[in-house]
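Handoff note, outgoing to incoming analyst
You'll be picking up this chain. Sequence as last confirmed:
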Amino acid sequence: MFNKLKQIKDLRSQAKQIQSKMAEETLEVEKNGIKILINGNQEIIYYKIINTELLNPEKASDLESALKEATNKAVKDAQKMMAQKMMASGDFNLPGM
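Most recent structure output, in case you need it:
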């Protein structure tokens, strides 16, 4: 039983280390006139509107759509990047697997 608890504690510690490493990784994505910087924990660092026409009040729905599409792309790209980095590093060791 204590062995299982130690494995769980080690796994939690390892997960925290991986999460910390992921926060240090960033990715910049540009789509539909929006540039986004996102980290490996899928936290948005910043948005930058490159296409200033999107700031026109008459284009509010275009801006909303561009933000949604750019954010979705950034999240997917960040997930892919981190999965590739984790697989390449072999940085995870799941007990019993």
